[in-house]
Write a structure and sequence with these properties.
mainly alpha; 56% helix
Length: 148
């Protein structure tokens, strides 16, 4: 448990045992007003008032949940997406400028990993195409390209 939360709980326990705020202030070496705020938080919020309240600082994230779902939909397509291509698609669709590095970090946070893209045929070539390419390969075999 956090030391501040433990101290707030101790202050409430001491108050429940009958100690005054001045006595508690001397006992825990804290300011009277700090203890007063602890009691106010306890009365307003109950047990959740004992926990620390952190406000979010800094810029709001550029990649919203809507953009995140857009990225997931794009990645489910039958094609290979790069971070630059995703950045361009987001910029075009949402008017938000996100760099490739920002896309990479967000994808990693979403649980995606990458591997080098390579060409893989979508389906098996037809028999006609196989015969045509086999004939072309036969002409390239050693000795066949020379004139007789």
């Amino acid at each position: 448990m956090n030391a501040k939360v433990r101290l707030r709980a101790q202050v409430l326990r001491l108050s429940n045992q009958g100690m005054s705020l001045e006595q508690i202030s001397e006992h825990v070496a804290r300011n009277y007003e700090t203890l007063r705020r602890t009691f106010d938080r306890w009365e307003e919020e109950g047990y959740t008032g004992l926990a620390d309240h952190y406000e979010e600082h800094g810029q709001k994230p550029v990649i919203t949940d809507d953009i995140k779902s857009f990225m997931e939909a794009k990645l489910k397509e039958q094609r290979c997406w790069t971070c630059d291509q995703l950045s361009a698609a987001i910029s075009e669709g949402y008017g938000v400028k996100v760099g490739a590095e920002g896309i990479r970090k967000r994808l990693k946070a979403m649980g995606y990993s990458w591997k080098r893209g390579r060409f893989v045929p979508a389906q098996r070539p037809s028999e006609k195409d196989l015969e045509h390419h086999k004939a072309a390969l036969d002409t390239l075999k050693k000795g066949r390209w020379r004139k007789s």
